Amino acid sequence: MAMFKYINFQGKNSGQVLILTVLILSGTVLAVTTIAGILMVYQIRQTGNVTDSAKAIFAADTGLEWELYKKIKDPDYPKPVFTNRADVETSISEDGQAIKSIGSAGNVRRAFELRL
């Protein structure tokens, strides 16, 4: 029995270091996971914007072609209708030498300008 008399676990505070280590490691893993999640959300959002950007570019190009067709062939030709929920706004300068076309899809807008 005397052999167990000298076993000392450094007092009652020996478990605090283990608990503190576990809390610090858990907090670090939580922070890293949160940052990774936020970065993934930004990447997913950016992927959606690429699709809307392409739709807006094609709508702006269509607007330029529409205005050119109206100027050269048929001034009463109707505005193009898009099936992908894109839209286009066009304007012609006062001297008639510049056409500006703004395509939009979602929250993205892209513009082209043509000078004759």
Report on the architecture of this protein.
The chain has one domain (16-115). Strand 2 and strand 3 (108-115) form a beta hairpin. It is built from one helix and three strands. It is α+β, with helices and mostly antiparallel strands.
- Percent of sequence in beta strands: 15-25%
The helix fraction, in percent, is: 40-55%
Widest sheet: strand order? 1-2-3
Major beta-sheet overview: 3 strands, antiparallel
Task: Return Rg in Å.
Answer: 33 Å
Distance between the termini: 105 Å
Instruction: Note poorly predicted spans.
Output: none
What oligomeric state do these chains adopt? single chain
Number of domains: 1
Overall geometry comes to: rod-shaped
Main traits of this protein?
3 strands, alpha+beta, single chain, 116 residues, 51% helix
Can you describe this structure in just a few lines?
This protein has one domain (16-115). 51% of the residues lie in helices and 20% in strands.
Layout of strands and helices, then pairs:
Elements lengths: L13 H59 L13 E7 L5 E8 L2 E8 L1
Antiparallel strand pairs: 1-2, 2-3
